[in-house]
Specification:
Layout (H helix, E strand, L loop, with lengths): L6 H29 L3 E9 L2 E9 L2 E10 L6 H4 L3 H16 L6 E10 L2 E5 L6
Parallel strand pairs: 3-4
Antiparallel strand pairs: 1-2, 2-3, 4-5
Length: about 130
């Protein structure tokens, strides 16, 4: 016997759909950046207090990349969703990642904003 859908089921479906959209955006961004000559080091680096979608190498530099995907530019679009709180979490995660590495490579933070399928790559955005 099937049970009736609940509010938590609806929230799970929404989160799954949102996560799927995010995963597709990250894959699209990864291909775009690889075509631009960057090399993938790690996807979805997680630590307590932060996350980085893509960590890539661009020449001698290590690049920490946040990918944001929106279906439209309504409410400011993808770039506007990179809030100061999100930037702080990225900064923290980057520090944790760097502590695990030998040496201190040159680093930068980039954002790939995908609005209605159009990619905008902002390099060396200032965080912190």
């Amino acid at each position: 016997m099937r049970r009736a859908p609940t509010l938590s089921d609806a929230n799970e479906d929404k989160r799954t759909s949102r996560r799927r959209t995010g995963d597709e955006g990250e894959l699209q961004a990864l291909h775009y950046l690889e075509q631009a000559g960057l090399r993938l080091i790690q996807k979805n680096f997680l630590c307590k207090g932060g996350e980085i979608d893509l960590i890539m190498r661009d020449g001698d530099s290590l690049v920490f990349i946040e990918v944001r995907t929106r279906s439209s530019i309504q409410f400011g679009g993808a770039l506007a969703s990179v809030t100061p709180a999100k930037q702080k979490k990225m900064w923290h995660a980057a520090q944790v990642f760097l502590l695990q590495q030998s040496g201190q490579p040159a680093c930068r933070f980039d954002v790939v904003a995908i609005d209605a399928g159009k990619i905008h790559w902002l390099q060396n955005v200032i965080l912190g």
